[in-house]
Amino acid sequence: MQRTDTLNIDPTCFSTREYVNHRYAELAPHLERFPDGIEDWRSHAARLRVELTKLLGGFPARRGLLNLRMEEPERFDGYTRRYVVFDSEPGVSVPAYLYLPDAPGMHRAVLALHGHGRGKDDVAGVSENEPSWPNVAEHQYDYARRFAERGYVVLAPDARCFGERGRDGMDCGWAFKAALLMGQTLVGWRVWDAFRALDLLQSLPEVDPNRIACVGLSWGGTHTLYTAALDRRVKVAVVSGYFSTFKDVLIDKNSCACQYIPGILKLADLPELIALAAPRPLLIQNGTDDPLYTLEVVKAQFARVKRLYERLGAPEKVDLDLFEGGHRWNGAKAYEWVDRWL
Ligand SMILES: [Zn+2]
To answer: Fewer Cβ within 10 Å of end Cβ, the chain: N or C?
Structure first.
């Protein structure tokens, strides 16, 4: 049999990447539109939430009991931290850290969602003797603890397949594929847990139920994006290290399977989904040296989100924090943003 590399054939036709690029180009005109006008956006956003929920595989029809279990508090300067467990649905338990201020009364609250790594332990900044601690420090990753130090009630749960929920050895890729077979998504499963975390925060006497923010880095940014898009109990959002287009971040960069939603590009692109937070205060953070995103794409797409906020009469409620650095949290602006708007 003759080898094809001896023939005069253009080898690009062997490339699945080229095929994907061609198929994507067919979708690009659809992805470039953002609806004009306030009324158009609001009706569009309502429809988009319904369609997005379908693509995520839907959510359980009923919210079961949270069955909150708490350990004794550990005391710190000005606040306590408790290890807690709650049920997000029957048979699904979620371990988390709950921070409560020492000061009496109702407080503002933050749902702190982690990225890839050790789960809630990273954002809580616990186990400073762990080998991964330098990574936490470098990425300013302990934002749950930092918000607690600023007087917020903070809940930092493990997402499915991370921390204690990853001890069965099954990872994001496995869970994504298993969910796919059942017409569901790992994004949807994790977002449901975030809805239930908001239920828990709202049930606490220490929390003002109308003043809850959601924040996260990397996967935590993804988690925050979808939670804020679908649940308007999130009054302020900080999406860190997860803003660009799906082509840039999920096709060209080949990211972790846990972020993929089958058919999403037929519905909307990432900037249109993050804009479902509008006109609520939204801070987007990207490092100028973050290898996971293309800076020019980030800037151009943010301009579109900004224009939408302007049309909605709230230009001051969205910002892009382009800080010098890589794939990390940038506390310099995020804490001030939540302090200001929540
Ligand atoms: Zn993942």
So the answer is: N
CA distances from 161 to 95, 176, 181, 248, 272 (A): 12, 10, 18, 25, 28
Q: Is 285 a domain residue?
A: yes
Is residue 150, in this structure, part of any structural domain at all?
Answer: yes
Fill in the DSSP letter of residue 118. S
- Could you list the residue range(s) of the whole structural domain that residue 295 is in? 36-341
- Determine the pLDDT at residue 27: 84
What b/e sequence results for 66-101 when a residue is b if at least 16 CB atoms lie within 10 Å of its CB, and e otherwise?
A: beeeeeeeeeeeebebebbbbbbbeebebbbbbbbb
pTM of the model: 0.94
Give the span between the Cα atoms of 294 and 215, in whole angstroms. 22
Q: How far is the CA of 206 from the centre of ligand 1 (A)?
A: 33
| Domain count within the chain | 1
* CA distances from residue 164 to 63, 120, 243, 331 in whole angstroms, order as listed: 23, 9, 28, 27
Answer yes or no: is 9 within a domain: no
Position 289 pLDDT exceeds 80: yes
| Residue 49 CA to ligand 1 centre (angstroms) | 23
- Measure 179 CA to ligand 1 centroid, in angstroms: 13
| 280 within a domain of the structure (yes/no) | yes
Direct distance between the N- and C-terminal alpha carbons of the chain, in angstroms, rounded to an integer: 70
